[in-house]
Design brief:
Elements lengths: L21 H8 L2 H9 L4 E5 L6 H10 L7 E6 L12 E5 L11 E5 L10 H10 L6 E7 L5 E7 L4 E8 L16 H4 L7 H15 L8 H14 L14 E6 H4 L4
Length: 260
């Protein structure tokens, strides 16, 4: 498989859990850009980078993405050799880090990996993964809480970050700003006045408060009303064409890109 002898990265805690990444998985399955990348790929290879102490979420990712491309291959990579397990069900595992063990995947997912690195390491790690993508490939760098109820992730292509998405359990979060504690490492220290991500979260909280009249109909209905308010303010939040079980906020990266 061309596994690198010297993986790029450091061993992290490896905390994981069954169904922890279900919200990002659902988003990936229904993301047209992801579907197009998988369907157009001559070799539909997906890498789950840093799956942790147990590979449950790697198998879950494979099962969900195969609803889009049934013949895709999934490889889980871990920098800790003691976490590399035997493969099964069309999913294999190997030692590797940001260099992707020499593979050229069309999609890479790295969740709760860079959160344990210093902020200044993010740009280099992103560039390393992006350089290893197959043409037209995509990279998801995300963070979530222990139960996967509060999540945030950045979608990148070979050259640039594209979008930021926040997703949360409608019945677990009192206001959108509560998801700030799970922002990806590239943004978590930028949640201060004068930064785009801070402005976005403030606007989302205000819209949520203004939409309180919809609360009797449930948090999902209230959030849809809040999204309408954000769009009316000129914030380019994405509109979902399907009814969502999660509360989701996706914006172009330009909205939240850190100031130099």
């Amino acid at each position: 498989m061309g596994v690198s002898k010297r993986p790029d990265g450091v061993i992290t805690r490896g905390t994981t859990g069954i169904n922890r990444l279900r919200r990002s998985d659902r988003w990936l399955v229904h993301r047209p850009q992801v579907a197009d990348a998988l369907l157009d790929a001559a070799d539909p290879l997906v890498v789950d980078l840093g799956y942790g102490a147990r590979p449950d979420t790697t198998f879950e990712l494979a099962g969900r993405l195969r609803t889009v491309r049934p013949d895709l291959r999934v490889v889980g990579l871990e920098i800790d050799p003691d976490r590399v397990v035997d493969g099964r069900d069309g999913v294999s595992f190997a030692r590797g880090g940001f260099e992707l063990a020499g593979l050229r995947p069309v999609l890479v997912r790295a969740f709760n990996v860079l959160r344990q690195y210093p902020e200044e390491a993010v740009a280099g790690a992103w560039a390393k993964v992006q350089s290893g993508l197959a043409p037209g490939g995509l990279f998801v760098d995300g963070t979530c809480d222990e139960l996967g109820r509060r999540c945030a992730w950045v979608l990148l292509d070979e050259h640039h970050p594209l979008t930021l998405t926040l997703a949360w359990d409608p019945f677990d979060v009192e206001r959108p700003g509560d998801v700030a504690e799970r922002l990806p490492k590239a943004l978590i220290h930028r949640n201060v006045p004068g930064e785009g991500v801070h402005d976005l979260l403030v606007a989302a909280d205000r819209a949520w408060a203004t939409a309180a009249q919809h609360a009797p109909f449930g948090p999902r209905v209230r959030w849809r009303a809040a999204l309408d308010l954000l769009r009316a303010q000129g914030i380019p939040v994405e509109v979902s064409r399907r009814r969502l079980r999660d509360c989701v906020l996706t914006v172009p990266w330009s909205v939240v890109a850190p100031t130099p």
